[in-house]
Write a structure and sequence with these properties.
Blueprint lengths: L1 E7 L7 E3 L11 E6 L2 E14 L11 E4 L2 H12 L1 H15 L4 E7 L5 E7 L7 H11 L2 E6 L2 H8 L10 H4 L9 H6 L6 H4 L14 H8 L8 E4 L2 E9 L4 E8 L4 E8 L23 H5 L1
Parallel strand pairs: 7-8
Antiparallel strand pairs: 1-2, 1-4, 3-4, 3-5, 6-7, 9-10, 10-11, 11-12
Helix pairs in contact: 2-3
């Protein structure tokens, strides 16, 4: 087991582990940590914990110290520089006629480097752009291409549920989401119903997938034959939240068809092996490509 302190560098960002040293920090406190690009300001989300050796990349870099008021002022000043930096860079992109969309930028804590995040449909030759930006900002310039899901995580937005996107508020990591999750939960496979702002499968499909997967093992399949306390019938609907099954029962002698709801544990049916889905790996594919 390794002792760690977990920090993030941005809201709802990925949690990174650092060696805590002798000091203890409160959750939400600002700290200065040693990173590959030098000292950086971070926020503590895990004050102190012990994790397995296989969950870290040794050796852990240390938490240097608690952030001071001057450190917080530096961090705020770097954030205030962002709007003007974005405006100037966008002008340079237009001047060079580059087919790229500027998403965000981030100044290093020590002010020696600025990273610009962008998206583009193909590879962009931005060598001349970097030269212009270097002359303007007088510091190291890095341009980093990101995907559509990372773009929405950075800029945020309102989802179909009326709340801000999960990836921008409460998800530290983008989780794997597959079309199988939508099928397991009995959702419509209409792309407009199960896609997020990024055009990919909604992250929230993964929230209840474990429950629906487990519940599905105790439920019969639609169209299958079951034995009920009132006789044999065919399943026409299932409700995995209430664990109820609607069954159509035909009485040929009386030429009568009735529909009854039964708890799943009152039914007898053949439990077939769950077949593997070929679409398990469709993590980042466009919905239209998946469903066509």
């Amino acid at each position: 087991m390794v002792k760690i302190t977990g920090v993030t560098f941005q809201n709802a960002g990925k949690v990174y582990y650092f060696a805590p040293g002798k000091d203890r920090y409160e959750k939400g406190a600002g700290v200065i940590v040693d990173t590959a690009r030098g000292p950086e300001y971070a926020t503590v989300v895990i004050p102190y914990a012990e994790v397995d050796d296989d969950k870290i990349i040794a050796p852990l870099k240390p938490v240097i110290r608690a952030a001071t008021a001057r450190d917080r002022e530096t961090m705020i000043r770097n954030r205030e520089r962002k709007p003007e930096a974005m405006r100037l860079t966008q002008e340079k992109i237009r001047q060079h006629g580059l087919d790229m969309k500027l998403i965000d930028c981030e100044f290093s804590f020590d002010g020696t480097k600025v990273v610009f995040y962008y998206s583009a449909p193909h590879r962009v030759d931005f060598r001349e752009l970097v030269k212009d930006l270097s002359s303007v900002f007088r510091m190291r310039i890095e341009l980093r291409q990101i995907g559509i899901r990372d773009e929405i995580k950075m800029i945020g937005g309102i989802g179909a549920c009326g709340r801000e996107c999960c990836c921008a508020t409460c998800m530290s990591d983008l989780k794997k989401v597959t079309i199988k999750m939508a099928k397991t939960q009995g959702l419509s496979l209409n792309p407009s119903k199960i896609s997020g702002m990024c055009g990919r499968l909604m992250c929230c499909l993964s929230y209840e997938n474990d429950y629906y997967t487990e519940a599905g093992r105790s439920m019969p399949k639609l169209g299958s034959e079951v034995v009920t306390p009132e006789g044999k019938g065919v399943v026409v609907n299932i409700n995995m939240l209430k664990m109820l099954v609607r069954v159509r029962i035909e009485d040929k002698k009386k030429d009568l068809v009735t529909y009854h709801d039964f708890p799943a544990d009152q039914l007898k049916f053949r439990r077939g092996k769950e077949k593997e889905e070929k679409d398990e790996g469709n993590e980042g594919e466009d919905l239209k490509e998946i469903l066509d």
